[in-house]
Amino acid sequence: MKRSANSYDVIAKHYDAAYASKADLVDLPSYLELSKKSRGPVLEIGCGTGRVLLPIARHGIEIHGVDISPAMLRILKSHLAGEPLEVRKRAHLHRGDMRSFHLKKKFPLVMLPFRSLRHMFTLKDQLAALKTAAFHLDRRGRLAFDVFYPKFDAITSGIGEEVRELEWAESGEHARVVRRFFREDSVDKIHQKFNFTFIFRTYEGERLVREESEPFALSYYTYPHIQVLFQLAGLEIVKEYGSYAKTPLDNSADQMIFLLKKSNSNRS
Questions:
Q1: Rounded to an integer, what distance in angstroms lies between the CA atom of residue 132 and that of residue 125?
Q2: pLDDT digits (tens, 9 = 90+) for 124-154
Q3: Contact 97, 74 (CB under 8 A)
Q4: Are 142 and 162 contacting, i.e. CB atoms less than 8 angstroms apart?
Q5: Residue 157: how many CB atoms within 10 A of its CB?
Q6: What is the pLDDT of residue 143?
Q7: Among positive and negative, which fits the CA dihedral 102, 73, 42, 98?
Q8: Are 166 and 180 contacting, i.e. CB atoms less than 8 angstroms apart?
Q9: pTM for the predicted model, two decimal places
Q10: 161 with 184: CB under 8 angstroms?
């Protein structure tokens, strides 16, 4: 997963507004609950602009956030600058690659929220990311993360078509609306990856005043695939769910949510 220094610039610019408008984004209470139970410090891998990190810090819990994107971290730093001093002191930001960064600290809770592991496209990279997360767990630590349960009919349909996903009002002196469109460009079924483009169109009334786009890619996982990755990374499943309502991970699931620990042979 190699991206340029400008990678995520367009997505980062619209990230907070886009996901604030997404009604089905319900993962935050679960990650906040886990963070409170751990009592911190917490490590969030793929912290982005702070959608999860900031609420945890506001609840009095020390948290370290790691992200590869300078654009995402710049926005998170600007958010932190507006927080009270006690919140700023609890939040520690690091630029790093989830496959290779090492902090000189162990954690009772490590998180990869919002399907961050889907940014790993090869078995080598997926395993490296999980091993990095496991490395940062303390002896009794837990690793929490989620990925989509793949919907194979959706993955392979509609290639080349634009789909309007989200809409929100843009802040500023002009009455503008931003609409995000999704266009799937290709699917690699062998490597379980699909490529797509996010298109952001800004309108005054119905007049298009700006269009921005950024290519993107995501991997997808099957349950047996991810179980093997856990074994190779020295991790064991503690709990698994099919949704944030803690429904079973079965044929009706739309997500795969895991709480893991180091296997006995991997503890140090």
A1: 10
A2: 999 999 999 999 999 999 999 999 999 888 8
A3: no
A4: no
A5: 11
A6: 98
A7: negative
A8: yes
A9: 0.93
A10: yes
* Superfamily of domain 9-150+222-266, CATH level 4: Vaccinia Virus protein VP39 (3.40.50.150)
Domain segments of the chain as ranges: 9-150+222-266, 153-219
Instruction: Determine the Cα–Cα distance for residues 142 and 31; give it in Å rounded to an integer.
Output: 12
Amino acid at site 205:
G
111 close to 136: Cβ distance less than 8 angstroms? no
- The two tokens of residue 247 are 């429904």
Query: Can you read off the two tokens belonging to residue 149?
Result: 């349960």
Q: Give the angle 200-96-29 at the CA atoms, nearest 5°.
A: 65
Provide the edge-to-edge strand list for the sheet that holds 176-188.
162-170, 176-188, 193-204, 207-219
What phi, psi does 168 have (nearest 5°)?
A: -155, 160
Helices (H), the chain: 9-20, 28-38, 53-58, 70-81, 85-90, 123-135, 152-155, 223-233
Local structure of 136: helix, strand or coil? coil
Residue identified by tokens 């940062």 is 136
| SS3 assignment, position 167 | strand
3-class DSSP state of 29:
helix
Confidence at 172, pLDDT banded by 50, 70, 90: confident
Q: Cβ contacts of residue 124 below 8 Å, gap of 6+?
A: none
Token pair of 136 as six digits: 């940062």
